[in-house]
Specification:
Blueprint (H helix, E strand, L loop, with lengths): L5 E4 L4 E5 L4 E3 L5 E7 L2 E5 L4 E4 L7 E5 L6 E5 L2 E4 L7 E3 L3 E5 L2 E4 L4 E4 L2 E5 L2 E4 L5 E6 L4 E4 L2 E4 L2 E6 L2 E5 L2 E4 L11 E6 L3 E5 L2 E4 L2 E6 L2 E5 L2 E4 L13 E4 L3 E5 L2 E4 L5
Length: 260
């Protein structure tokens, strides 16, 4: 059990952290690992579990300050970050690679504010969050390949970023509460570009919502179940607002109760 966080401030060094047993972080209003400066950071956690202490609040698992311009690689591990007031990973700098992690979070699994992320495989779940599983903001180049992601809010919210999704599945978890009625599965806004190739996308209100941005969908399936009809909320599977641009090629679109 860690009662204090780890701070990495190593100007030109390669930092490697090997997780060799179950790890619990027990300090509120803090980050488990903060990265300020380093040439590279590697966290190896295959087969291990990293979690928060019960009842912990205002804590993050990984926090990258904007002074970090290096690379970070997270290899494997199960991250159970049950803290409802902060994203599990809040990344303001650097280029981060997530290789086959299993992550269960509440507020957001990954949030960027200037960083790039490459997410390869793995499972990410935010089924108790009104926010998003992935909140990608101000990211010049982020990618998600063969990722399985679920959430009760937006599963992907891309803003002012370039995001590429290849394969994998993105699905919204139905929750019988009015506040969750109008969240699309994939949202792209604020001049972002979202490219999706051969993914399975399932929505309970809308699969893809484009507002003031661009989305290009190639292949894949888009299924909208429209599960909030009893509340008077009905949507097509694909929706474009506010000068957005949507391109669809060779995709299968199925929408219950409304047009595609």
């Amino acid at each position: 059990t860690y009662t204090e966080g780890i701070v990495i401030d190593a100007e030109d060094d390669d930092v490697v952290i090997n997780v060799t047993g179950e790890t619990t972080f027990a300090k509120g209003s803090a980050a488990f690992i903060t990265v300020r400066k380093a040439k590279s950071v590697t966290v190896n956690a295959e087969g291990q579990t990293i979690k928060t202490a019960e009842g912990l609040a205002y804590s993050r698992c990984f926090y990258a300050e904007n002074s970090f311009t290096g690379t970070a690689e997270l290899n494997g591990g199960t991250y159970n970050w049950q803290c409802g007031s902060r994203p599990a990973c809040y990344l303001c700098g650097g280029s981060w690679t997530f290789d086959h992690l299993t992550m269960k979070a509440i507020t957001r699994a990954i949030e960027t504010d200037g960083a790039n992320v490459t997410v390869n495989g793995g499972t990410y779940d935010c089924s108790e969050s009104f926010s998003a599983t992935f909140w990608i903001n101000d990211s010049p180049n982020s990618s998600f390949t063969n990722v399985k992601a679920t959430g009760v809010g937006w599963v992907m919210n891309a803003m002012n970023s370039q995001v590429n999704i290849v394969g994998g599945s993105y699905s919204r978890t139905y929750k019988d509460l009015p506040r969750y009625k109008d969240r699309p599965t994939l949202r792209v806004a604020n001049s972002a570009t979202l490219n999706v190739t051969d993914a399975e996308v399932t929505g309970t209100y809308c699969d893809v919502f484009v507002t003031g941005a661009t989305a290009n969908l190639v292949g894949g399936t888009y299924t909208n179940t429209n599960q909030y009809l009893n509340l008077g909320y009905e949507s097509p599977a694909l929706k474009v607002w506010n000068g957005g641009t949507l391109s669809v090629k060779d995709a299968v679109v199925d929408c219950t109760g409304d047009n595609a």
